[in-house]
Each structure stands twice: as C-alpha cells, then as structure tokens.
Design goal:
Layout: E1 8-11, H1 19-26, E2 38-45, E3 49-53, H2 57-77, E4 91-96, E5 113-120, E6 123-129, H3 134-153, H4 160-171, E7 174-175, E8 179-182, H5 187-196, H6 206-210, H7 222-241, H8 245-259, H9 264-272, H10 276-289, E9 293-297, E10 307-312, H11 313-316, H12 319-325, H13 331-345, H14 352-365, H15 372-378, H16 384-396, H17 400-413, H18 418-431, H19 437-449, H20 454-466, H21 470-481, H22 487-502, H23 506-513, E11 522-527, H24 529-554
Parallel strand pairs: 3-4, 4-6
Antiparallel strand pairs: 1-9, 2-3, 2-10, 5-6, 5-11, 7-8, 8-9
Helix pairs in contact: 2-3, 3-4, 4-7, 5-7, 5-24, 8-9, 13-14, 14-15, 14-16, 15-16, 16-17, 16-18, 17-18, 18-19, 19-20, 20-21, 20-23, 21-22
Length: 570
C-alpha cells in the first residue's frame, strides 16, 4: 500500500520520538492582522480545511499542519480505494476551547462527547474540542478525521471494524517535517486490551467484531464500554492487516470481497486463510510478539498553507448558530435556533454575517419572505451563499424559475457546493412534469461534491436509474446499503437495489423522486474513551469488592482466588 520510496524502520515502543515537542517546533508563531473589537473566534483556511476556532492562532496552525499531513498519508494508504472526484469542498471544522461549546449546536449528545462529524444536505461539518493534554486531543481528532476521510473519499462503508480499526490506527500517528511514526498502540486501546488480559470478562469475540456488533453485549461500562472494546479489537485486527506487504495485499482482497457482498466472515477467512475461531489467539500472540512502531521517512510531507481572518465581536456569537443551522436540526430545534438568532441579530443590523445567518434561519424555519430585504441588497455584490439563499427562499415560496436563476448564478461562483446543486435538483423536479438532463445532472453533481451524504446519494441513485444508467445506480445504492450506521436509508437502498436489478420503470422512479424523505443527518460522535476506561476499571473494581464480600460471607476461612491471566474469559 505504501509507495516503494518510503523506507520504514522498525522501532521499539520506548524509542518513539517525542513528536509533540517536534510538532511545536515545526509550527511558527502566527500573527493575524488586528481588527478593532475582534471576537475570540477567528477563521483559518488551508488546502483541505476551513477552521473556525476560539483557541489560539498558534494552536490552530499546529493542528492544520498535522491534519494536512494526515490527509496526505491517508490518500497513500487508501489509494486502492480512492473515489475522489476532485469536486469535494473543503471541510468546515469548528475547533473549540471546551466541550461546553458543543451545547450550542442544539443537538442531543451522548455522555463524554468531545467531537462530532455531521453530514446532511447542507454539507459536512466537523467539531472538535481542545483538550488540556494536547497529545491526547490530537489522537481524538486524528481518529475522527480518518473515519470521515473513508466516508468522504472511498466507497468503504463496511466492515465497520475496518473503519474503526483504521481510525484508531492513525489516531496515534505523529508527524515531523520529514517523518511519520505509525503503529503505536493508542493509550485507551492499550489500556483496555491490558485490562482484558488480566482475566477480565470480555463482551465481544472476533466473530462479533467481523459481524459488526459494536453495541450488543454486557460490559462493565454498558454500551460505551462495548464500543471501546470493539474499537480496541478492531485496532488490533487492522494493525495486523497493515503489518506486511502480504497482509496489505490480502486486505485489498478482503475489502473488495466485502464490497461484492461476500459475507464478511467468509471474506476474511478466504483472504487471510485464518479461521475466525482461531483469530483471537493469533492476534493475542501478534500483540505480544509482533507489534512494531514504524518511523516512515516521507520527504515531501506538506505544510499547511494558511490564511487567517479575524472576526469582529459582533460576528463571534453567530459562528456556532450558523453551524447548528447547517447541521439539519429537527423542527423543534430549528425553530428555537430561529428565535435565538433573530434576537441576537437584532442587535447588529449592519453586520452582514449576522444577517446572513439570520436569513438562513428564516428560510429554513420561518417565513422566507422575511429574508428577502437583506438578501436582495446583499446580492448586488456577487456572493455564492447569498445567491443560494435567495434560490432556496424562492423555492420555498414556490417560485421555481426565480430559484433556478439564482441557483445557477450561485453554482457559477461555487461549482462544488453540494447544497446548491441539490437545491437545483429539487427546483427542477418542481419546474416540470419530468426531470430534464440539467435536473438529473444537478443530482449527480451534488453527490460528487458530497460523497458521504446519503441524502445526496439517494437522489443521485434515482437520477441514474431514471436516465437508464443502471450500473451507476446499483453502485450508488450499494454504497448506501452497506452503511449500517444509517439503517433506515440502508434498508431503503437495499429495497431499491432489488428493484433496479429486476428492472424498474421510469414512472416508478419518478414517483420516488417526488417523495420527500424525512430530513436526516448522519452524526458520528467522538467519545472521550479515557473517561470510559476509568468507568470500566471503577465498575470492575466495585464488582471485585462485592465478590470478595460475598465470598467472605459464605466462607470466611477460604479467601477468593485470583482470576487467571488468560486472553479470554467470558
């Protein structure tokens, strides 16, 4: 999988370089041109990212250097599976100075959440929290971005054990200017595997892992603990699959077979020649004897090319409001956001950013006509987002011809906007009894710019089927059907995959196009596994204490014997 000019040198675990100190040295101090009454929030743009942050310029510069290098290496490791169209917009990422900022998204969140990737028709956004321990925080960000990268740039949707395993494999990667270290055991993954080897009860075996069971079972920390165990076992399995040239080639065969709908366990056994029943013992030995950390020489690792922009104080409080609106909230949350945004924007009638955020809220959750006075004036200066909002407002007011004109102008300025292309597709459906080529192409363009957004995949699959391109329709539907983390759309895709294979009429496809599916967003949270691990150890200790008390009560002369330190004890 690696280019042959990369020389890898095995290092012992204790010899891994102090990367945190080196990455601080590679990121020079960044100064942003001052702005009177500046907000604590600022905007930074690099080759693949647009970051909004309320941390520090230097912290974000360091982060972007690392993320650009991670993106570079992920493209090499996944080159056999890359499906990049080149039309993907830059990822918008919000980097907060504390987890409390996630509350501003008005979304229900799980316990110990410190990050989120949200994808829906409005696009894709990432959210991450700066932790006091910088290296731990970087691991969480790497984990989340790797998972997102697979969704965005490849067709890999299963097995989720590979997605989670690769995410944790790269979580511990670190970069200097010319070198990457990779293969180190992530802290909480190692802690959990060590915990199991102390003879503790386990929740999953490798058959569970391959069959994508990441939540069913009994664990010391309930579902969160099961997910941590799934991640730990998935990391070890993926580490093995990436350990040699032979295992990497077998990995390509394995993932390709899964994509062809070969059952996952069967695909693994055929690719690797290992019975799943023997996998646990084999990987236990592999971890004890063969785990290596590699220093990979990469002479052309990129640096982030950054443009910093300070935001005025009157704009800062609208940063997370806009993010929340673009996360496709439900009606109750959306209407609450409209009320909150309208109240705040009333204090800044001359602030263009505040009024634009308010306009989006009015169009999505209020009366679109309320947004027209500001947007009409703002459109005198070419601006893709203003024109998109005017197009969306016109569409909501049942003025498809006006909507089409605005949206075409918006796409001319920003041809890679998935939400603008999707709005143009919706406009075309409302403009005529049957969709023309431009309408069908708009659906396809939206999907090419938002490859991980299943709402866009749905419309593209139907557009392909309507045009008679059944091969692309099947591939797009298969992509959705394989994504078990969006079960409703996966079930829909599986049904329509059968219809396309059997031969479905244009009339039936058109009828499905006109059905408006419920607005959905795919949300993948990043959890602070250090806290989960603490819960696991605490509850295990309490269980031990209860056991000792019970044992002493039954037979005070016979102390409890220690559990044997075997790799498995269920």
């Amino acid at each position: 999988m690696l280019k042959p000019w990369y020389a890898a040198v095995a290092l012992c675990g204790a010899g891994v370089m102090n990367v945190h100190a080196q990455q601080q040295a590679t990121a020079p101090s960044v100064v942003v041109a001052g702005q009177r009454n500046a907000s604590e929030w600022f905007r930074v743009e690099s080759q693949h990212f647009v970051v909004y942050s309320n941390t520090s310029n230097d912290d974000v510069a360091t982060l972007l250097h690392q993320l650009e290098r991670l993106d570079f290496m992920l493209r090499i490791y996944t080159r056999s599976f890359l499906k990049s169209s080149g039309a993907e917009p830059k990822l918008t990422f919000y980097y907060h100075d504390g987890a409390v900022a996630l509350n501003g998204l008005a979304l229900a969140q799980p316990a110990n959440a410190i990050g989120l990737y949200n994808s829906c028709r409005a696009g894709v956004q990432g959210f991450g929290v700066q932790l006091a321990t910088g290296d731990e925080g970087l691991s969480y960000l790497y984990e989340a971005y790797t998972r997102h990268f697979l969704y965005r740039y490849t067709d890999i949707r299963e097995p989720i054990s590979f997605i989670d395993g690769l995410a944790h494999y790269f979580a511990s990667a670190r970069f200097t200017d010319t070198q990457m270290s990779i293969g180190k055991t992530p802290l909480n993954v190692g802690n959990y595997l060590n915990f199991l080897e102390q003879g503790r009860l386990y929740s999953l075996d490798y058959k569970d892992v391959l069959e994508q069971n990441d939540s069913q079972g009994v664990n010391y920390a309930s579902t969160a603990g099961i997910k941590l165990e799934f991640a730990a076992r998935s990391w070890l399995l993926t580490h093995y699959m990436l350990s040699t040239e032979d295992t990497r080639q077998r990995m390509v065969a394995y993932l390709s077979a899964v994509y062809r709908d070969v059952p996952i366990t069967q695909a693994f056994e055929e690719a690797y020649g290992i019975k799943v029943s023997e996998l646990g013992t084999m990987l236990w030995r592999y971890r004890r004897q063969n785990i290596k950390v590699l220093a990979v020489v990469v002479p052309d690792l990129p640096l982030a090319k950054m443009e910093f922009k300070a935001l005025p104080q009157s704009s800062g409080e609208f940063v997370l409001a806009e993010a929340a609106l673009k996360s496709c909230p439900d009606r109750k949350q959306g209407e609450a956001l409209l009320q909150r945004t309208a109240s705040a924007a009333a204090q800044y009638p001359a602030n263009a950013y505040a009024q634009r955020v308010l306009s989006r809220a009015q169009i999505d959750w209020g009366n679109p006509q309320d947004a027209l006075p500001y947007l009409t004036i703002a459109a005198r200066t070419p601006d893709a987002e203003v024109l998109y909002l005017l197009g969306q407002a016109s569409l909501r007011m049942s003025q498809p011809e006006a909507a089409r004109a605005y949206l075409l102008r918006a796409l001319a300025l920003d041809p890679n906007s998935p939400e603008t292309a999707y709005a143009l597709y919706q406009t075309g459906l409302k403009s005529a009894a049957t969709p023309d080529d431009a309408t069908l192409q708009a659906a396809v363009s939206a999907f090419r710019s938002g490859h991980e957004i299943n709402t866009l995949a749905r419309s593209a699959a139907l557009a392909y089927a309507y045009a008679g391109d059944n091969a692309r329709a099947r591939n797009t539907l298969k992509l959705m059907a394989h994504n078990i983390r969006e079960p409703e759309l996966a079930a829909w895709a599986q049904t329509w995959l059968g219809k396309v294979v059997a031969g479905v009429s244009q009339e039936a496809v058109l009828a499905e196009m006109h059905k408006q599916p419920a607005e959905t967003a795919f949300r993948e949270w990043t959890i602070a596994n250090a806290v989960v691990m603490q819960t696991v150890e605490k509850n295990a200790g309490m269980q031990d204490a209860r056991g000792r008390v019970d044992q002493q009560a039954m037979n005070p002369n016979n102390p409890v014997q220690a559990l044997p330190a075997t790799p498995y004890a269920r």
